[in-house]
Design goal:
GO terms for molecular function: acyltransferase activity, transferring groups other than amino-acyl groups. The protein is of the alpha+beta class and about 250 residues long. The chain is about 30% helix and about 25% strand. It has an eight-stranded mixed beta sheet, sandwiched between helices. A hairpin with a 6-residue loop joins strand 3 and strand 4.
Amino acid sequence: IANPHALTLTHIMPDHLSIHAAREDDMAEITGVLLSSFGHMPVEQAMGNVDTPEGRKAMRERHLQAWREHAKETDVPCGIKCVHTDPTSGKETIVGFSEWFIYANPPMPEHHEQANALISGTWVPEEGGQREKVQAALKPTIDTRRKWLHGRKCAVLMYVCVDPAWRRQGAATMCVQWGVRKCNELGIMAFLEATEEGQHVYKKCGFVEVEKVRCDWEGEVGVFPAMICWPRGTREEDRTPAILSS
């Protein structure tokens, strides 16, 4: 969803990289970057995020639908792309991508009790218990978000990915920093679950670990730290879950 106002937030950095709001017609290119980072994960594969023509098409449509739903709540862009502009030819290539779901208006208390469309798994076939299996694997993620975000203004960083040829050159940091700056402007918290590869980027951008999310897939447990970047001025006593354990 392109937001003309968001383009004024473009940040230029060395090596001809810049940040822009992603457009719907960017999604075909972005899908390739997403698959290069997450396509190896069994749960992503089980959800149909696979590198086939049919898988790519379905994946694009799911993300675009999530963008459209998000656009009903805010004019802040959801998809953020990092673009390399060739200094000789002027050709632009999407080398990185992040997906920020920003909820700057006070949500209903139950807002985060339902899964974001991209992790609901409702499209997974029911045959053989596949949907139930996927949703069970994702439940710890959904429960942790509910615990920390219930009723709060916040932003959820769903995906950060970089083309393999462009990793460790600042693209991921730029994508994350864009959202952190926006959250600071709005005075809201930013939340994510980190992969092992991404943790150092998030820490550098101000995120701190609040707990570990453990997801089980066919007996193999993956651990993904839940991390929060609190807005400036947040009191220590307020840096607690929205829903406290009884």
